Amino acid sequence: MQVFITGGTGLIGSAVVRELLDNGHSVLALARSESSEAALREVGATTVRGSLADLDVLRTGAAKSDGVIHLAFSNDFSSPEALAAGVAEESVALLTLGDELVGSDRPLVTVSGTPWVPGRPSTEADPLPLDGPVGGRGRSVMATLELASRGVRSAAVRMPRTVHNQGDGGFAGLLTQIARQSGVSGYPGDGTQRWPAVHALDAAVLFRLVLENAPAGTAWHAVDDEGDAVRDIATVIGRRLGLPVESVPEATYGPLGPIFATDQPSSSAHTRQTLNWHPHHPSLLEDLENLQP
User: Fold this and answer.
1) Which of 149, 67, 152, 136 is nearest to 104 (CA)?
2) How many CB atoms lie within 10 A of CB 171?
3) What positions does the domain NAD-dependent epimerase/dehydratase occupy (predicted)?
4) For residue 148, what are the CA distances in angstroms to 3, 29, 105, 153, 223?
5) Largest CB tally within 10 Å, which of 22, 122, 263, 266?
């Protein structure tokens, strides 16, 4: 099938584009810049220029395609206002894509984070949070899944806190970035809180499987590591960068601070069994060994 994809040059998106092309699909990718356009064309995708704010471009891309994978997000976590603006932009974009697919039975695959549940790993059956820093994104994803009742084969792939490749990406990547800037490999609280993780190449396989096979209105977990202690993540980062490892204030992480401090392990048992998904790339702690000083 021809797949329209947003966010096709990001850490996850670039892996998804290659996975689709390697498995017989064609890709029409949204490209915000000349450099993104060149990168996408180099691997064999066709492109259309625009951003999530270009709603007519989104409608045209969806109309021309047999399915849609939405991955683009502003990724500006500098302030609550910036995060809210990114969530609002994505919500309108998803609504636009969904409206174009109504009544077609074509797939629309979107992305969210795994939820957190006190005292146990979250599962695919647990609801997303609808309040707090990322509550708006949860509401947008739920609205997308509800399009199942309007003839859209909508599905959500819930991503863990860290999606990584060659030691970079996700919340662990933010820890690394802050460590380089501050000279301390930090973690909030006592560091025993756990974050789930997955390698980007394994996540890409799941996106393809969901696109091809997932029933309408379903959610899936792209989780390999159920939960790595944040202190263990910071310890590897500190050792690789030659920096001290210390607890730091939650405020160090801005609007993400409360999320960084929360214990949030997650399971993918249902996803693995139902979609026959078998991640096999390096774990997060193994992959962090690729960090260069």
Assistant:
1) 152
2) 22
3) 3-216
4) 19, 24, 8, 6, 24
5) 266
Contact at 8 Å (CB) between 246 and 164? no
Q: Per residue in 129-167, pLDDT tens?
A: 888 767 888 999 999 999 999 999 999 999 999 999 999
74-123: pLDDT as tens digits? 666 567 677 677 778 899 999 999 999 999 999 999 999 999 999 999 99
User: Residue holding tokens 């990584």?
Assistant: 164
Rounded Cα gap, residues 1 and 106, in angstroms? 10
| Domains of the chain with bracketed CATH | 2-162+197-225 (3.40.50.720), 165-196+227-264+283-290 (3.90.25)
Strand 194-199 relative to strand 225-229, pairing = antiparallel
Which candidate, 192, 171, 126, 136, places its Cα nearest to that of 288? 171
Non-local (6+) Cβ contacts of 126 within 8 A are 115, 117
Report the distance separating Cα 57 and Cα 225, nearest Å.
37
- Which amino acid does the sequence have at 71? L
Phi, psi of 105 (to 5 degrees): 60, 20
Contact criterion met (CB below 8 Å) for 165 and 200: yes
Per residue in 181-218, pLDDT (tens digit) is 999 999 999 999 999 999 999 999 999 999 999 999 99
Residue 291 neighbours by CB under 8 Å, 6+ apart: 167, 168, 176, 236, 237, 240, 241
